[in-house]
Amino acid sequence: MGKIKVLTDEVASQIAAGEVIERPGSVVKELVENAIDAGASQITVRISEAGKKLIEVSDNGNGIPYEELELAVARHATSKLQKASDLFKIQTLGFRGEALASIASVSQISLLSKHKGEELGGKIENLDGKAFQVSHFGGPDGTSVVVRNLFYNVPARLKFLKSDITEKQKISSLITKFALAYPNIRFHLYNERQLLLQSSGNGDRREILTQIYGVEIARQMLEVKFEDHPYLINGFISPIAITRSNRREITFFVNGRWIQDVALNSALLKSYHTMIMVGRYPISVLYLDFPADFVDVNVHPTKAEVRFSKPDLVFSMVQRAARRALLAYSPVPEISQSFWKSDSKVQHDNETQWSPATMLNNTDDQPMFSQSSQVDNQEDNLVENLERRKHLPLLRHIGQIGATYIIAEGPDGLYLIDQHAAHERILFEKMMSQMSNLIPSQALLSPEIVQLPLHQAVLLQEKLSILDKLGFEISEFGPNTFQVRAIPALLTGINPLDAIRVVVEDFEDDEKPLGGMVESIIAARICKRAAVKGGQVLSKEEQRTLIENLEQCDAPRTCPHGRPTMIHLSVDLLERQFGRKGSL
């Protein structure tokens, strides 16, 4: 180590900027928050190359007085607090006085602003990373900040950014959240010249939900109203019939600030306990309005985390508010007792015709019956080396157990086949084998229209060429809206809207594609949704067909995601279990 030295202002500024400006979305967040604090009723955001080349945020707010422009871009300069005690009663989104200075230290920035009480506005810019230049300009009231070439002077930071698709998604999602939190503000988001998002600013939050999720979901969202003075919770949560495969659409705002809080997520999920399937998550947009001194927002540089003075009280209020809405609007589901009857007529009534296209609208891909802990502990002993042979021996069908597993006999013992995982593998291999030529499509009798949240629409737009290879015919049909005209013939009969949604709900840009192809991971996820589910009663003929199709697969031992399709109990193992060859 060398001698201890005081860091130069340039290095100190870039270190500080690294805490606040992580990616293009961080710049957008800071600038939009400043615009909201300035009392803007209209905010326009423009980006180019996912924000790396250009970010421009314009508003019609109060503007910055000309003589304060240099202070506005100075570090630790703010009009939002004056003394330390003000930190515990923050009522604005910004307060640190770091945003503009941090942005300026890692980009080329121009700021144009005209205060409402002045005849001329001012322009301050820093294009060489060294000195700011200030001049007068004439223009409308408000502020416009233009950020060019983000991280041009710290290129190492660019290597840690995600793909343009991901960064654009994050910006889209962020503006969507602002639109939800501030429905009285008119937001516009442009990517290059394309309008991605536009809100009316009329104060109707359900209208914004309609733009994000579509008319049908927005109509079904349950309104939450909870007041225990001075605490207020309102917003919307989804009914138990509408769920997602991840937590991304659980959204909380505290005093107008979008936050991420594990405890609040847990409180909401607890309110759904026993009402939705494990592994499924609701949609929520909840607004918590609490006294300023009840919330500590000075926790993290990004201001995305807060602390509550009474966290247990907040947990309880969120849980009660959501549960009350669920019980008021949603009937409590009951399990039919007829399923457990062994009467053949009941079995016949519950049978459904199985085909590669059935049960897409059944979101339950988990077995209905859990294995005992004793079986779990002995799993290593029961599972043989599944890689010993690539293909299966000829199997003789025996029956179905728990409406989830198919029993078959082979020359070397007993096979328990997970019908969902097995059907996933069958559909996946059929679809991938057809890709070498042209996957046949089946035109829909009438085109289906699907409306997606903005960030999902951006992702789907990027994947249209891949879906075209998989046999879908999809085209854009307005803002965040797509028209589905055909689906793969292999999946005829599925709900095309669910098939499209599973692509954008579950797909992760960082996930490695199966087989080295993006097409394969998308195909695998569609097949997962289309496959027959655990808990679905199959006829004997359907069970035999599934076994025969699985025997023909190139990799029948696992589903496309690597989960075993079967467990093999050898004859030797069975004889040991029954004491014919000693004990295990």
Overview of this protein structure:
The structure is a single chain. The chain has 3 domains: 9-200, 2-Layer Sandwich (Heat Shock Protein 90), CATH 3.30.565.10; 206-329, Ribosomal Protein S5, domain 2 (2-Layer Sandwich); 339-584, formyl-coa transferase, domain 3. Helices cover 33% and strands 22% of the residues. It contains 19 helices and 22 strands. Strand 7 and strand 8 form a beta hairpin. It is elongated and about 95 Å long. 38% of the residues are buried.
Structure summary:
The chain has 19 helices and 22 strands. The protein is of the alpha+beta class and 584 residues long. The chain has an eight-stranded mixed β-sheet with strand order 5-4-3-6-2-1-7-8, with helices on one face.
Task: Quickly name the level 1 CATH class of the largest domain.
Answer: Alpha Beta
Structural category: alpha+beta
- The shape is elongated
- Please list the strands of the largest sheet in the order they lie side by side: 5-4-3-6-2-1-7-8
Major sheet details: 8 strands, mixed
Helix tally equals 19
**Which whole number gives the mean pLDDT?**
78
What name is given to the CATH topology of the largest domain?
formyl-coa transferase, domain 3
How much of the sequence lies in strands comes to 15-25%
Gross CATH architecture of the largest domain: 2-Layer Sandwich
